[in-house]
Amino acid sequence: MSELDRLAALVGIEPYFHDIFGARRDTGDATKRALIAAMGLGAGTDAEVAESLRTLEERAWSRLLPPVTVVTEGAPITVPVAARIGFDGAMLAWTLTEEGGAVHRGDIPFAAVADIDRRDVDGVAHHRRSLLLPVKPGLGYHTLTVSLGGGEPTSMRVIVAPERCVLPEEVAPQGGRCWGVGLQLYGLRSATDWGIGDFDDLGRFARTAGKLGATLVGLNPLHALFPADPGHFGPYSPSSRSFLNILYIDVEAVPDLAECEEARAMLAGDAFRHAIVAAREAELVDYLAVSRLKMPVLETLFHSFRARHLDLSTKRAAAFDRFRAEIGPALRRHAVFEALHEHFFLGESQLWSWQSWPAEFQDPDSPAVADFAGQHTERVLFYEWLQWEADRQLGAAAEVGRQAGLGIGFYRDLAVAVNPGGAAAWSDRTGLVQGASVGAPPDAFNLKGQNWGLSPLSPVGLVETAYEPFIEALRANMRHAGALRIDHVMALKHLFWIPADGSDGAYVEYPFEDLLRIVALESVRNRCVVIGEDLGTVPDGFRPALHDAGILSYRVLYFERDAAGDFLPPDDYPRRSMVTVSTHDLATFKGFWEGRDLDWRVRLDLYPDAAARDKDAWDRGADRWRLLRALNREGLRPPAYPNDEGDQPWSRPLSEAVHRFLAGSPGAIAMVQIEDALCEDEQPNLPGTTDQHPNWRRRLRLAVEELPGDDGVTALAAVLRAERVGPG
């Protein structure tokens, strides 16, 4: 094996993969060099490869302890300790400090610790010994500190995790077969919205869903985007996955409005009220218009909060300070980025990405950044206050849902990665990769593959940071939630990276077992069910591993077929799964039946040729036939469909039959998309498009106040209730 191959293997670059057509794709040398460089290691020349290889291989020997170890609760904890040969007469002293504060200490002759490996490092013989701790701490994040022969102590993180996540039957009052409603929050309408669904609307939607018998409400990612640039609104390309999109704040629900006459006067102005009405009545979300309405009022409310509370140290000021302390330094760093992004982008639009800022501002720990934050204290506090208010309103909406009977509550969505120009990438130069982006290899739906333009986490950086960026993202998205959907969950095992230099992509492996255990730990601590979006190319053995870890599979009716292409019967769906007819990236059921998504592809010239277009149209006709056959097999085909021909038009009874079919499966959670309940024919997002299709902008045809009286909503809810928890 060449040094380049050894280095690539050491950092997790897989030597080949098989695409969806079964063809083997070998990872070329150019791709290996580019991806290694993206992880911050030299690989441009053979000499650089040799030096990077030596650095990585010897790093594990030149420090006493690795950064982190992850073990299952109750299992023995063994820790590798590396040192140069010559300490056999020394004592090894250790201290394990549990997360809760309990402290365990001990010492042992180093010679008595089992020797497991040896190596020369820069001509000096080293050995590695395996320290078995005589204690087994409970679940949590603990710290082990070791010193050898009275030398400098070294610390590492010890993560003790459960075997699996919590399951729906452990948290849902009615047991394991429950149902929920999927929602794109921005699409909610109400009598009081400002052109976009907000957290107050979400609370009202949650109340309706709970009263209809749902156990959970599924949401699009609520991640922080770019307040200075509201035109960047894709929820799966966030600035940070650890903070919230502040445009979801309901301005009229901010407590400071009652105290701020200036803000109330702004809202009462004729021009302002007309602008709100125009935004509310728009067919699509106009993010720029929403931002122009909300941000000036929020700024005014913050100044009122500053004068009436922060400067006077009131109880509200103390609550704000508690939030800042709870979230920690990450909140301030995020707020500093927001202020910097606003400063540079609004000054010169070409300075959108932090990589284009002056060099001294590209490092979050630089003196220039500290000076900027000191000079713009008010603006940094404003962005911290916005996160506090967004978190408060999301928590209030979650409480409304719980009071209305949502046994699980909200299920939040964790995007696979972040925008390389955003706050997370700026804040974390160790854990996040620059110089490569996340995507997918060619498949039947995207023959050219996909490049999502997102920055992946570095497997090397993850270990070096003791998994902190991953833990932070999980914890943030389980907040005010009873379930978490992990988008493209295969990223726990490997992720397809595409080099920025245009080289072919390759899969990069991650520490799968460690990440699974951490997911389970956060699931148990937060009483949060976990669903893994396992669509696309799934590695061998991956789904069984998810099952054993208690992560629910994500099963979409359109894709669940046998080898002949027929739809699987309900009984073939796994018990540990969330089942759904469609997703935000696919046609609604009405759109599927009528070929609305295919119409869009024709309109936007997305087909490579007429043959591909005609094949899709023929296949869709066959799918209608196959679906009617599947319904007939279960005794669910509506009377209005006397045969399986599939040329009859869409109808609401057909939609109800399909949802009954799916809800009758053993899957733990059955989801219905609100677009299907409202008989919409347009999907939220059309993959492969940007501004050609109104992605992430569609608004529901009914206001949230009208949903309880809508026949389609109530009828579909009755279907789900009957199949999941019995009549009533």
From TrEMBL:
Domain of life: Bacteria
Reactions catalysed, as given in the entry: Transfers a segment of a (1->4)-alpha-D-glucan to a new position in an acceptor, which may be glucose or a (1->4)-alpha-D-glucan
Keywords associated with the record: Carbohydrate metabolism, Glycosyltransferase, Transferase
Pfam families per the UniProt record, alphabetical: Glyco_hydro_77 (PF02446), MalQ_N (PF21226)
Annotated GO MF terms: 4-alpha-glucanotransferase activity
Top enzyme class: transferase
UniProt-listed Enzyme Commission number(s): 2.4.1.25
Keyword hit for Glycosyltransferase: yes
InterPro entries from the UniProt entry: GH, Glyco_hydro_77, MalQ_N
Domain spans labelled MalQ N-terminal beta-sandwich: 65-162
NCBIfam families registered for this protein in UniProt: malQ
Protein family per UniProt: Belongs to the disproportionating enzyme family.
Name by which UniProt lists this protein: 4-alpha-glucanotransferase
